[in-house]
Amino acid sequence: MGEAYNPYKTAQAQFMKVADLLGLDQSSKDLLGNTQREYHFSIPVRMDDGTVKVFRGFRVQHSDARGPCKGGIRFHPHETIDTVRALAMWMTWKTAVVDIPLGGGKGGVICDPHNLSMREQEGICRGWIRQIANDIGPLRDVPAPDVMTNNQHMLWMMDEYESIHGGRYPGVITGKPVGVGGSLGRTEATGYGLIYTVREAMKELGMDPKNTTASFQGFGNVSQYAISLLTELGSRIVAASYWDQADRKAYTFRKESGLNMEELWPITDKFGSINKDKARDLGYEILDENAWLEQDVDILLPCALENQINADKVKMMSKKVKIIGEGANGPTNLDGDKAIQDRGIYMIPDFLANAGGVTCSYFEQVQCNMNYYWEKDEVLQKLDTKMTSAFHAVHELAKKRKLYMRDAAYVISIERVAHASKLRGWL
Ligand code: NAD
What we know:
- It is a single chain.
- Helix content is about 45%, strand content about 20%.
- The protein is an alpha/beta fold.
- It has two domains: about 35-170, Leucine Dehydrogenase, chain A, domain 1 (Rossmann fold, 3-Layer(aba) Sandwich); about 190-355, Rossmann fold, CATH 3.40.50.
- Strands 9-8-7-6-10-11-12 form a seven-stranded mixed sheet. It has a five-stranded mixed sheet with strand order 1-2-4-3-5.
- α3 links the parallel β3 and β4 (about 105-110).
- The chain is globular, with a radius of gyration of 21 Å.
- The structure holds nicotinamide-adenine-dinucleotide.
- The site of nicotinamide-adenine-dinucleotide has 27 residues, from α7 and β7.
């Protein structure tokens, strides 16, 4: 029996590989290769049937050397502390690679919103804040939405924080609804940001988007907007997969002429699952969970969960695949990554590819602090500028030092965080 996948070990191994490459000393490795602070707590919630259920919650602050910690909160039945630790560490590299003045953190609650009423979810959100209200804040640690959390959850959390601290602190949390401290463009930001980097990669590889095909894993927030923008650029997206809660398994839906978001949006629920009967009526084939990565396409975009691509899965990929853009956090495990590198596929690593969300979150904070909100075009233009310049910095370094793209992105981020830690006198 192989050892169970541990995302934190993956994140630490990725870090150590680059720390060795950079010749970091032991204290730098000890500081940056581990989390700075962790909070573990219980959240008692009165359920609709009158009983009290106790949920487990976490907040992990990996590094605040470059600014307040930043990172989402996930609700997931299989959430583990090591997943949260890994995601917190990846957030530090993510904010560093796009060069925004923030650190890395992540939170989570072990729960399944599919089986919780809105009132029960509100109870979890408010309870989570009550446990951590003195250890987060606009200048300390700023949470945001992630898997299975949305702008309503963020607003309940902001409201609870403001009740506790007695004031208005819109900068305590991002991903809020527009009109109550939210930024225009936040919903699109991660998916669009991913496609800005894919667009630049296509330019570098001499690919005309109009002659490309793509396939996605996942059909949630990230995928839906990425599919829209990639379609606008002229690419044909032939397939995407999703988790079917009723059948408790994943499926791929496919259409040779290309996915059409206008017809898919009405048959998609808020968890990113489609109604497969209605999809069949619209001419989509329903295939198995792995079909998304077996498509004969140029671009693969894993945008669901971590640990989805190992070396065996890489063998299932078409010879045609030229670019992988990791919309999800940590979708590729270590042997999968090696296999991708060996095949010479152009990798846009997660903490660069999906940094659009946190970059727009940062813009949201800036707007909250100014109490002045930009038009959507302005937000998206600024996002494009940040993502494009971050992409090219990584691409150029990879080319110059003959590095794998993931390693080049790590070199940039780790150097920035180590440098800030040194300037502060921590190292
Ligand atoms: P989401 O909850 O909106 O969507 C997740 C999608 O993945 C859903 O369509 C779901 O059905 C699908 N899915 C779940 N398990 C699956 C499986 N086993 N096989 C196939 N599909 C499966 O989440 P999201 O916000 O789109 O986030 C997706 C990924 O992107 C996560 O890794 C998240 O951490 C990362 N991410 C999200 C943001 C953001 O702003 N939303 C930012 C950065 C990174």
